[in-house]
Amino acid sequence: MKAVTWQGKRDVRVDTVPDPKIIEPTDAIVRVTSSGICGSDLHLYETLGSSCVSRACSPSARRRRYAARARARHCWATRSSTGRSPAARPSTCGCRIDRLGALLAAIATARRGGTISLSGVYGGMVDPLPMMELFDKQIQLRMGQANVRRWIDDILPLVTGDGDPLGTEDFTTHTLPLADAPHGYEIFQRKQDGAIKVLLRP
After folding, report:
1. Which of 63, 69, 105, 178 stands the most exposed, by the fewest C-beta atoms within 10 Å?
2. What is residue 82's predicted lDDT score, i.e. its pLDDT?
3. Which residues pair with 171 in a beta bridge?
4. Which phi and psi (to 5°) does residue 200 adopt?
5. How far is Cα 157 from Cα 159, in angstroms, rounded to an integer?
6. In this structure, is residue 109 part of a structural domain?
7. Cα separation, 168 vs 43, whole angstroms
8. Torsion-angle region of residue 87: left (phi > 0), alpha (psi -120 to 50) or beta?
9. Minimal CA–CA distance to 107: which of 120, 119, 116, 117?
10. What is the tens place of the pLDDT at every residue in 82-97?
């Protein structure tokens, strides 16, 4: 099958990779109907490219946000039956980037009793943290992944039903074939041609 693979900084390619196989009882094979290039992909595409420390990252298949249909399943896979849209949690490789300076600046400028919210994708260890300053100023740190599994049943009907109440149909600015994925990543990263959301189709 074809897959977008990460080869290095600003270097993604469409390669032929082995077809998936059912190995574990919880495995499922899905037919991908579309895949969106996510903003968090750009951390690997641009910033994290030179900081990736896992050998599994070079090269690696980019498996981010996609819409899919279950095509085959093992008899013990209970969460998704054939033909139903599955909720998938794609894997990503472990990377590291030094953002300690930005975090320390936020801690230093936060008011007493304030809250610091960390956005974006953080990877690796951030050390040392000024624990005494955090304690003395009573600062809260808020961070984490989007709770997709918690909200998927509520949100999915809003984006797949009639009427488009959230305006998601107008959110996609570019729809490209999978073969043009390198171009899609480039214009999305550089914000060229009005690129806000790039959708890839096989």
Report:
1. 105
2. 53
3. none
4. -110, 135
5. 6
6. yes
7. 24
8. beta
9. 116
10. 555 444 434 333 334 4
